[in-house]
Amino acid sequence: AVVSTQSTGEEKKGALGDAFSAGGVDPLISNMVDTMIDNKRAANISGVVAAFNTIMAAQRGEVPCKVTSARPLSEDHLEALREALGKFLKENEKLLLETATDEALIGGMVVEVGDKRVDMSTATKIRKLKAALAMPL
Q: What is the rounded distance in angstroms from the CA atom of residue 95 to the CA atom of residue 111?
């Protein structure tokens, strides 16, 4: 069944209930989703799922890390990056490395681990240099 934003709460609950039953989803999850739909909070379901996934990843010792570079990183660079980032992990933690590219960075990279962000991009260096040069003496 297809559920749209125009569907009634009962239509949404029916469609999701069928899918949950077919997928073997725990009744507690089904009840939570039904309650969110009843309270007109269906739009927040994806946020709840994302928060739950974050909590479960932390419980498993997984540390998500996103590295954005101007160009795709070679296998050698990726291995060196994994090794360097691994030095910051505790013994029971596992690095989950995600990579992305953004040509606007010009060069360098941006590393995001948890709520920390280190911007080593050429674009940011140029922007800071321009700001410093624009300041009056």
A: 13
The DSSP line for 80-105 is HHHHHHHTTS-TT-EEEEEEEE-GGG
pLDDT the model gives residue 60: 95
Tell me the mean pLDDT per 10 residues along the chain, length 137. 65 84 90 92 93 93 96 97 94 95 97 94 97 92
Q: Which residues pair with 94 in a beta bridge?
A: 62
Q: Give the Å distances, CA to CA, from 106 to 67, 70, 133.
A: 14, 6, 20
CA angle, 113 as apex, 57 and 51 as ends, to 5°? 35
Q: How far apart are CA 69 and CA 79, in angstroms?
A: 15
Q: How much is the pLDDT for 3? A: 55
Helix (H) or strand (E) holding 63: strand 62-69
Copy the structure tokens of residue 16.
């999701």
CA distance 132 to 127: 9
Rounded to 10°, the helix 27-38/9-23 angle is: 170
Q: Which helix (H) or strand (E) holds 122?
A: helix 122-134
